[in-house]
Fold this protein.
Amino acid sequence: MLHNSQGLPVTTDSPEAIAAIDQFTHQMLSYGNNCQVITSGLAADPTSVLVNTHVAALHLFAETATAATEAQPYLHTARQHLDTATERERLYVEAIAAWADNDFDRALACHTLLAERYPRDLLAAQIGQYHHFNLGNAEELLTLVETILPANSENHFVYGMLAFGLEQCHRLAEAEAAGRRAVDLNRQDPWAHHAVAHVMETQQRLGEGITWMESLADTWESCGTFRTHNWWHVALYYLAQGNTDQALHLYDREIWGRATKDYSQCVINAISLLIRLELRGVDVGDRWQELGNAVCDRLHDHVSPLLDTQYIYALTRAGYDALATDMLHSIVTYSQQAHPSIRAIWAEVTLPVAEAMRAEARGDWSTSVEKFAIAQSRLHQLGGSHAQRGVYHQVYRHALAKLSQTELKTAV
Ligand SMILES: [Fe+2]
């Protein structure tokens, strides 16, 4: 039995496995570009419960249709060695296994217990926040980090996590203070930069937001794909200022230009920005084609409502109408079969929004308005942040305006 850098016991005799766990934890919390480092722990201790479960989690974070299948062998190995594992390790295995099963109620019950009993386990709290984020549970997302805060009062990562939770609960002044505290403790904290960016966007402090983010952007070079999300926020400021040229420039230079083209979050950053640009009347040229190509083999992913409802828009705008129809059928089927913890969200929110987004992309304003109206009061259940869901409100308003123009012409 050894201990990790957070002082928590880990069932292994291998210092190399501990080093891999520590480096992986740091990479995850700092949104680094070397999360794969955890695989070196497999070589050091192939039977480690924690290393195997971290590798399973890494597969799941890829947000692909095959992720759960790819995670299974590692979960299987971890389960074979539970008899010597600590309680924390057993809870963590159960949490990640539940995630692989899309049983988010069970996963979150484990993450709540982990936060209460092992508040120094920041990675477990981060994963719990990720699930709450994807389920639109803003208050629970905040509660989880508040639970671990007293045990980590000097840790900048925790203040970044706190800042984002506060922002999602509209406690903007406190969110900004927590985010700035994180950055004061350590400037290399892209999640804290991001939380403050959300505050400034909500308050429409556009110039200040640009200065804040661009003054910290040098630190994002050591980030993985999260760099593109932070640049997406910068582009939103320029867009709100009416500087569509700069927003499009950032799309080409950073948001899609340096995207990992097969990573879900990179793809929806790009889709969401192209939608917003087009709604402002910008000619985006043939850029939809590349995005359509990026999602044409993701028809059956159903990893999250936020992803599917934007993928289908890109497919349609790229001219892949038959594929968009197939995807819609697949969402219908999935919404009937999804795990009970998420089935209602898929059937009652994701499906009508997917129909609305597809209709908007085809210029069918009437259907878009009709379908959005069904889900309007529950859009938060699509998951994601207020900023990410802003695109649905913009599309809905656009469809309403187009529909009323059409009705006016018909009446005249
Ligand atoms: Fe964001």
User: Anything to note?
Assistant: The domain at 1-137 is CATH 1.25.40 (Serine Threonine Protein Phosphatase 5, Tetratricopeptide repeat). The pocket of fe (ii) ion is lined by residues 194, 198, 229, 233, 385, 387 (CB under 6 Å). DSSP finds 21 helices and two strands in the chain. Strands lie at 2-3, 9-10.
